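Weekly structure sync, notes
Attendees: PL (lead), two postdocs, one rotation student
Agenda item 3: pending single-chain targets
PL asked that the sequence for the first pending target be pasted directly into the notes so everyone works from the same version. It is reproduced below exactly as submitted, 541 residues in total.
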Amino acid sequence: MDTIDLWANPWPIDFGICQIPPPTKFSAQYLHKLASYAKSKGTLGWPYLRYDVWKRFATTRLHLNEEQIQMYFDAFLLLVSTKRSLPDRIQWYKQYASAKVKSERDGLLDQRLVPTQQFVLFLYVQQSTKVSLKSKLVAGDEWKQSSPPFGQDSKSSSEATEEMIHFRFVHDNLQEILQLLVEPDSVSDGSSALADQEIRMAGVEALEFLISGCSTDRSVKPLRELVSLQSQSSQCGYSKITQKFALLKLSNWIQSHLKPNPYGLSATRINSKVTERLFGQTEGASGKGRTASNRTIAPKKFRVTTFAAVRKLTVIQGEESLSDATVQVYRCRNAFLYLLAPLKHASIDNCRQVIIVLGAVEGVVSVTKCVQCTIIAICGNVHISDCSQCTFHVSCLARPILLARNEHLVLAPYHTHYPTLGEHVEKAGLTTTYNCWNNPIEFGLGTDEDTPPVYRLMPPSSFSPFVVPVTMDGPLKENPCPLPKEYRDAADKRDAIFKSWHKTVNDAHLDEDKKEKLQTFVEGQFQDWLTQTGNAMQLLT
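Predicted structure, written out during the meeting:
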């Protein structure tokens, strides 16, 4: 008899929820109507849903505006991209960037496709309220909570873990989720009683968006393979005659094997090495911080590395320790983190006075409850909520999403590079030819006309390149992101001033005494600048 363990995938809730009040018509009732509408459109809506079909339904039935319609579609695509589909994603965005007229761009938008049943599940997940437990994870006993190992009763684990949030959402809503996967033509004859409903194998494949699992050998397998095991198919309610699964039996089978994610944050802390001294920490640094990674035990898609309570440190980590991982940064203070790798997703929560340079992030960078931080990233998109006085130097494929309770944000062009960044951008399925950094979508602003703007674009006069303090081999020698003309001119002007200063000093033919006085004066001014800007801390760490 095979031993089966199932768990809820973390990314639909952690990075898929747009964190705005979902439309009331995202109920199961209306999502059934979306599935029926898509099926009625033939190959334009089933099994893959075209953007123009989604747009028509969302406009007329869900009453979404154009920004919301595209936002949900883009957010879903960032979640379900695979290594096989990334080249196509790059090609599509290059075509979209080169389109000269609106009609051409609209035509390219309308041709985009998403798997219909998985997209319906994604919209259903928007009803879930994301609960942030990250503040609890960096308290005094931040590394002590744990998920149970395989085979241990999940009830013995702490309720206060992210794994339990994901587990509870799927467990408590499973029957309704499965009903969304009953194809519309299966209930068209009025046989809609729960006991009579059945799900095709395509519906089980769609459920892989929310659920993963493994069998006796502990290797992660698609759900479709697990339900097809000879020892499990009858328990799942599979009928060889109809080639369908009885919904109630399938629901019972999933619930009996569902457990918290064995590769989640809590399991990471108990099953992998936690270090007081951060790998990549600069030598001689007197600060502190903690990190944990499941890299040695987790399959690639479940890799996660956490940085907690990093203070007064400069930390540099690269591809060998972070590639394809989801990075999570919590409660860091007065620190510099250079996480230079192709990443899956990144979350930054409750940080203050921190500069974080991310490599290339395939999906979403989520930033929450941060103050006076600078985030530098090339990514699929960035979601920002409850942040103050933060600056974002980003290049992103989708329009940045500014959620509730933000204030005094600054958006600016991407402004740095390191030698292997170009390779990381390609691995993450990104392109720098299309960039939405200066065109965010804003939510939760209220209706008061006197409310000050949530964000502003950085003035070109304040723009300057950022230097990543690493030495490594690689072909890239400059910022891969094209700068808008006004920012490029500002950077060229600064460079010209710097060269002019050097020429003036060289042409002055100063004697040794005057050179020493000039050096002392310049160093004094530089130290004053370091103190005033807070950059002195980076040199001290």
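Discussion points:
- Residues 130-160, 272-277 have pLDDT under 50 and may be disordered.
- Residues 272-486 form a domain with the Pectate Lyase C-like fold (CATH 2.160.20.70).
Action: rotation student to compare against the earlier draft before next sync.
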